[in-house]
Amino acid sequence: MKKNTVVMGTRPEAIKLCPLVRELRGRAGFFVSVLSSGQHGELLRETMHDFEMGADFELDTMRAGQSAATLFSKILLGTDRILRREKPDLVIVQGDTATALAAAQAAFYNGIEGGHVEAGLRTYHMRSPFPEEMHRRAIALMSDYHFAPTPTAAKHLIGEGIEEGRVYVTGNTVVDALRYTLTREPARMPTVPKGCRLLLFTAHRREHWGRTMEGMLRALRRIVEAHPDVVAVCPLHPNPAVRRVASKMLSGHGRILCIEPPSVVAFHRLLSESYLVLTDSGGIQEEATALGIPTVVMRYSTERTEGVLSGNLRLSGSGEEGIIEATELLLRPDSELYRSMRRPSAVFGDGGACKRIADILQKI
Ligand code: UDP
Fold it and tell me: Within a 10 A sphere around the Cβ of 228, how many other Cβ atoms?
């Protein structure tokens, strides 16, 4: 029996790893434990609950206002303690968070093999996204098995000198997650008046905090004001720095609904019912592409270039005027561009990623 420990700390990690845990637990020959780093606290617990799952081990690491280095070191020490006691054969991490890097490093120090889900995403700008680009490159150095979502991601890894035989193209597990969540009934949904075009807006990236974020929020207000049939829904990110400015700048507008972050089941439903998405998120770019919802990516570069090339995503930059310009093109009545973007694409995966990863893990 192979002992695997899957480590997750944030909402997106839970969304992308819970379907894999479910797949592995459904197969013979695997013992799977889940370690939560606590990075997103209650939000993580709720997301796992949506996948009918809980953590076997949970670290108590989050404190308001602590530095990134403090959080990282707490996760490293906490994971190290559990790995020494539990002695798994393999530690699985996902993506590029502090949790993923700390857990990969704890596994490495303990001589335990590491598997990296969603390996090989790159912008090749070390500070964009910050600090995620550094995290994912460092995780690649320490991992033994690299589950690349796309051929492009695999190419990055091989180009960086990772042994080709250890890189597997599997698709992104987020598409598997969508398949699951969209069959569930959300407990609560925001009420959007019938006949309105729903614009889903999310912004949270650390490198956008401050003036850039204010410009993004101003752009949203101006866009909604210019289109009486558009209703914007803005789930507030749990980070207090983001919430404060968003609630302040968006409040008092009848067609901008700032809501508490919906559960992943409700969020995926909302996304599937959207006319247009404006986001600086990573995972939402993949989900919107899979569902065929046209998306303006409020960044200058993306590690999800496949969605730009497939014509599902449009980069606007993070400046106020650029965002308005890109969005206006898509909100025009009879926009040819909009029509061309409104079709699902499987560039990020076909919903079979977890099965592929489990097949590989069964063989190694
Ligand atoms: N998400 C959610 N509720 C929300 C906003 C996002 O469940 O209110 C989900 C979304 O479906 C996606 C993930 O959270 O899978 C993205 O998280 P985020 O944008 O915070 O992180 P990133 O993907 O940029 O790392």
Answer: 9
